[in-house]
Each structure stands twice: as structure tokens, then as C-alpha cells.
Specification:
The protein has one domain. Helices cover 0% and strands 37% of the residues. It is built from no helices and seven strands. Strand 5 and strand 6 form a beta hairpin. The protein is globular.
């Protein structure tokens, strides 16, 4: 089971918004520069075990922990 609906952010500022009746809709705003990724990296659109994960044949990809964003942030 994934995260409940809400907005989540990594320590470096990438964001994931999860919504929908069964939390099946997600939107990712991936800041590849701040995450230390290369411009060929592609983020997954769903969190994996509390992580935003990105894949890349050039640099090997990476991941970052996701934290909930408070409603007024």
C-alpha cells in the first residue's frame, strides 16, 4: 500500500502529489539538478517504499526519501 493522498517533498525540493479515489493519481515535479541527477534521469510516477525513485542508463539513477508537506507549507 502506498502513501495516502497528499503532497510529499524530498529534502532537495522535488515534489509528488498523490490524489484520486484510490490514491491512483500522481504528479511529480522532479528537480534533477538539486537531486544530483543527470538530465537523462526519469522519475517513477509512484512512490516506492517511501522513496521518489529515478532511473537512468547514463548515471545509474537514484532515490530520495519523501516527507509529507503540511497543508499550510
Amino acid at each position: 500500500m502506498g502513501f495516502p493522498n497528499g503532497i510529499y517533498r524530498t529534502k532537495n525540493g522535488s515534489m509528488m502529489e498523490i490524489s484520486g479515489k484510490h490514491s491512483g493519481i500522481s504528479k511529480v515535479d522532479f528537480d534533477w539538478l538539486e537531486e544530483g541527477a543527470c538530465c537523462d534521469c526519469a522519475p517513477d510516477v509512484y512512490e516506492q517504499h517511501g522513496q521518489l525513485v529515478w532511473h537512468c542508463d547514463e548515471c545509474g539513477g537514484g532515490s530520495a526519501e519523501l516527507f509529507p508537506v503540511a497543508p499550510n507549507d
